[in-house]
Inverse folding.
């Protein structure tokens, strides 16, 4: 007699952890969630920015670069105007750590110079029989530190009787590395002053257009369209050429900053307008209006603080265009002019194709511009993503 009973069902597998329950861990997770839920928008923005590693590293690089402009005289091995008449268009010198297979303190080899009479080209050869150890915290060219005191202390200097041209020299025998350090003071700050002026105009015009709307919005939008219809570079060139040649370098510097800010505010104004159009419909804006708050107070105390993080991100992305604008104008001879030193002024010496072919190190200031623009773009991308921490 056969057994017709159904087979016993296979027990279902479960995925519940059999590890001992730790209430302390659950309390830590709950405490962390509560801390995040009660955190301010700035803290949430910082926490999200930290996940963007490239933006954080770019921020560190920019902090170092902007910190260096405070002590440019100390960092540069030579002064801004120091000329080495025996080393005109000298190639970059390397810092060596080994000599005859033995480890040594950092040093440079000597340079021998001769003029090739066939092509009238300056030729330099390395003389390994002469070594010059690099000195640190040493005495060198004197300088006036921010008008506070005189000093001649430098972070590092060439060895006694030697030279230290990390990026080579220019047509007057001036150290290009030192001039790049000095030029950073102008090229990096022109973007900051320009963006401050641009943000003021953008918030004012964009805020008026977004808050009032109607005819005010139409007038501001038409003004923005007119300004944006002009090609930027020719407009920069025209305005820069209008600056009097009798102005001092300081006035020309602020004139270039003003020109860059006058042209670059349109994009920020449109971003402000779009935010105001959305925020003016919020309940807190209506409550402020019902309580009798004036439009200036509503804009300054309620609307602008609600998208300050977006303004910071937009400003960070706009600074590279300011730096590139100053570099382009100075390169074309319409911006800053000697004796003012900026990266654009340094690049103006590389306008000739013969100079670039014979002395390619004159293009090194362009690499500094590329590095700064990339770091600003990376940081701006991270700030733009972190500006909305709830998504």
């Amino acid at each position: 007699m056969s057994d017709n009973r159904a087979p016993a069902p296979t027990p279902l597998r479960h995925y519940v952890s059999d590890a001992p329950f730790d209430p302390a861990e659950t309390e830590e997770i709950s405490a962390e969630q509560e801390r995040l839920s009660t955190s301010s928008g700035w803290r949430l923005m910082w926490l999200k920015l930290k996940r963007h590693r490239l933006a954080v590293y770019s921020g560190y690089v920019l902090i170092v670069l902007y910190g260096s402009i405070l002590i440019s005289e100390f960092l540069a091995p030579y002064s801004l105007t120091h000329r080495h008449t025996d080393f005109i268009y000298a190639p970059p010198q390397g810092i060596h750590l080994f000599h005859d297979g033995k480890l040594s303190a950092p040093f440079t080899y000597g340079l021998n110079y001769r003029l090739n009479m066939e092509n009238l080209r300056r030729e330099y050869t390395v003389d390994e029989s002469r070594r010059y150890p690099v000195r640190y915290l040493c005495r060198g060219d004197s300088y006036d530190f921010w008008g506070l005191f005189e000093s001649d202390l430098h972070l590092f200097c060439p060895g006694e009787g030697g030279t230290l041209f990390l990026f080579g020299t220019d047509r007057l025998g001036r150290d290009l590395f030192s001039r790049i350090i000095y030029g950073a003071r102008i090229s990096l700050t022109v973007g900051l002053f320009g963006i401050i002026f641009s943000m003021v105009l953008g918030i004012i015009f964009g805020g008026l257009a977004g808050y009032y709307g109607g005819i005010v919005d139409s007038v501001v939008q038409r003004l923005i369209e007119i300004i944006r219809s002009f090609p930027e570079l020719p407009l920069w060139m025209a305005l820069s050429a209008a600056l009097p040649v009798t102005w001092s370098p300081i006035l020309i510097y602020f004139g270039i900053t003003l020109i860059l800010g006058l042209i670059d505010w349109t994009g920020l104004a449109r971003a402000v307008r779009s935010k105001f159009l959305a925020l003016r419909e919020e309940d807190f804006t209506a409550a402020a209006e019902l309580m009798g708050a004036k439009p200036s107070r509503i804009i300054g105390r309620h609307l602008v603080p609600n998208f300050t993080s977006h303004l910071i991100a937009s400003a960070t992305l706009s600074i590279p265009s300011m730096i590139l604008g100053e570099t382009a104008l100075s390169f074309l001879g319409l911006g800053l002019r000697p004796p003012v030193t900026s990266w654009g002024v340094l690049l103006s010496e590389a306008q000739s194709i013969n100079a670039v072919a014979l002395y390619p190190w004159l293009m090194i200031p362009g690499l500094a511009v590329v590095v700064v623009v990339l770091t600003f773009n990376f940081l701006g991308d991270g700030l733009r993503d972190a500006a909305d921490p709830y998504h």
User: Anything to note?
Assistant: The radius of gyration is 30 Å. The beta strands are 96-99, 102-116, 121-133, 135-145, 149-157. The mean pLDDT is 83. The first strand starts at residue 96 and ends at 99.
